[in-house]
Amino acid sequence: MRSMIVSADAKKGMVVKQRVRVSDLKLDLIDVTILRFLDLKQILQVSPGKRLLKIESVKDGGHVVREARVSRLLDSMRASSPARAKPASATTRAASVDDEKKSWILRHPSALSMFEEITRASMGKKIVMFLDYDGTLSPIVEDPDRAFMSQEMREAVKDTATFFPTAIVSGRCRDKVYSFVQLTELYYAGSHGMDIKGPPRSCSNGNKVKFNLFSLHRITDGDLVLCQPASEFLPMIDEVYKTLVESTKSIPGARVETNKFCLSVHFRCVDEKSWDALAEQVKLVLSGYPKLKLTSGRKVLEIRPTIEWDKGKALEFLLEALGFAASDDDVLPIYIGDDRTDEDAFKVLRQRGRGVGILVSKVPKETSASYSLEEPSEVRRFLCRLAEWKRQSL
Ligand SMILES: [Mg+2]
């Protein structure tokens, strides 16, 4: 079979026959569209565009074109990097960035400047606090094992938990997050919410937990494990972890982290020239595991089971475990996070039409959150202010 690669606009003059999924070609193929032509010239006359097409001649004299959405994963990896300076004058660039930021802030105002509005919305309701960890409570650092939170932040979270049920929702392994936070009175939702555990009964600060979802909770070692919806995936995740460690060890800076129910491949310390090679390796390994899916976050590729479970589902689960129904008017969930995976929780709050989503970001980003904070130090100020407001109102 003859094959060739051309650039072309996939939309013009082509008939879509079917969509298939392949992983055996060298290109970064994720979704592939099979198109059929009788005349190869017809294809080559299509005006050049961004997409790459792999064209193969077939038995009946026509040609099959496989549309390769090349580098979707690589694009996604780049999108998680800081925006690069575009070739423009410094003044023009600064003005344009400034305008964009102003417009974004109007749509997602600072939670500190809108503090009164947020507390007004909580009148007569129970605030439940949800906090992401990396980039929200701790700074983003090169070595994920050293993403420590400050003692001041720990005290702010502890103070918050005195007044409001508080959960840490992270992509990390639950035990790892606990080792950073070290507060027993919190709920911990690790592995993107796939491993949820409440505080021991003696530390629950009087927050009564109702167990409506009997099928999902169990008790171990005197601690309450509330939810582990992906436990059947543990052997598979462990196997993929070992394979990925082996297959990525030749790429300098690549780091595979196991988060128990999911995996992270960190590329913060990988030279950008090697990102493509890393993405290829990861996708090659995953091609043998259709029950696992791949997403990207801030300088990290995330591998998770394909179950319908994410940080948004974890938020809903915890609200229900705390005794609040999905449509409950008596609760005001506040979720603070900085990552793409936090968007699932922001979306749940949007869909509920109640609740406060706060994105931590210094730069404008597409988000379903309503408010913003620039960095962890602002998150700490917000938490301190909220606890102080509650203290004063008692
Ligand atoms: Mg984060």
Automatic annotation (TrEMBL):
Q: Which CDD domains match?
A: HAD_TPP
Give the record's GO biological process terms. Answer: trehalose biosynthetic process
What start and end residues bound the annotated signal peptide? none
> Which pathway does it take part in?
Glycan biosynthesis; trehalose biosynthesis
Family note = Belongs to the trehalose phosphatase family.
Recorded protein name is Trehalose 6-phosphate phosphatase
Say which species the protein is native to: Rhodamnia argentea
Q: What GO terms are given for molecular function?
A: trehalose-phosphatase activity
What keywords sit in the KW lines? Hydrolase, Stress response
Pfam families in the cross-refs:
Trehalose_PPase (PF02358)
The prosthetic group or cofactor this protein requires is: a divalent metal cation
Q: Which SUPFAM superfamilies match?
A: HAD-like
Entry EC number(s): 3.1.3.12
- The EC category is hydrolase
Its organism's taxonomic lineage begins at:
Eukaryota, Viridiplantae, Streptophyta, Embryophyta, Tracheophyta
